[in-house]
C-alpha cells in the first residue's frame, strides 16, 4: 500500500519540491498551504504520479488546523509521514527596531503553527504505532546571527521541539528528525524582505545556493531509510557556506 505524506508549505520552495519527489516515489500526498490556486495546480501536476489531496489553511489558525486535518477522507487519514515545513522569516532588523507584527508572525507560524499541526497528527500516529515526523529547522536554529533575533529564536524552538518530540514519541515507535538548511534559493527572502525582489536577489548574489530540490532529495533519503534507522538531525549547507555568516561569494 502506498504511504501517505502530509507536507505543510507545499505551495512553494522546499515543501513543493518535497511533494514532487515523494509523489514520484509512490507516496500519496496531502498538500497544505494558504494559496489554493497553487495547491490545485500542484495536485493536477502530481496526478500523473499519485493521488493528492489539498488542505488550505493558515497554520496560525488552530481551529482551521484541527478541522482541516479531521476532515481528511478515509483514503488519506492514515498519515505515515509529516513534513513540518511551513514557515518563513519576516524582516531582518535589530532587536531594538523589530516590528511586533513580524515577531508575532514568526512565533505564530514557525513555532505555534508547527505545534498545532503536530498535535493534530501525533495522536493518529500513536494509535497506528508508527509514523515519521520531519521538522524543517534552519541553520538559524543552531546559530544566532546579527538581526536574526526572533527568526533565530523561532528556529531554536523548532530544534528543541524536534528533540522533545523524539523523546516523548520514542515509546510509540515514531521516528522524529530535523533538517537544518543553510541558504536555499526559494521565495524565502522575498517574504523576509516583504516583496523587495532586488534585496532578495542580493542574498543569493555570487553564491551557488542550495535549490529546494537539494533539500527535497535529502528528505526523501531520510524517509526511505529502513524502519530501524532514524536520521535525527542534519545540517545542510551550500558548499559556499561555512556557517550562518561565513559565505564565499564570487564577485
Ligand atoms: P518559501 O517562502 O518558498 O515557502 C514557505 C512555505 O510556507 C509556503 O508554501 C507557504 O505557503 C508556507 N507558509 C508560510 N506561512 C504560512 C502560514 N501562515 N500558514 C500556512 N502555510 C504557510 O520558503 P522555503 O521553502 O525556503 O521555506 C520552507 C521552510 O524552510 C521554512 O520553515 C523556512 O524557515 C525553512 N528554511 C528555509 C531556508 C532558506 O534559505 N530558504 C533555510 C533554512 C530553513 P502559503 O504562503 O501558500 O501559505
Ligand atoms: C534560512 C537561513 O540563514 O537566512 O533559515 O536564516 S538564514
UniProtKB/TrEMBL annotation:
InterPro entries: NAD(P)-bd_dom_sf, Sc_DH/Rdtase_CS, SDR_fam. The keyword Metal-binding does not apply. PROSITE patterns: ADH_SHORT. One of its GO terms (molecular function) is oxidoreductase activity, acting on the CH-OH group of donors, NAD or NADP as acceptor. Pfam families: adh_short (PF00106). Keywords: Oxidoreductase. The keyword Oxidoreductase applies. Belongs to the short-chain dehydrogenases/reductases (SDR) family. This is NADP-dependent 3-hydroxy acid dehydrogenase YdfG.
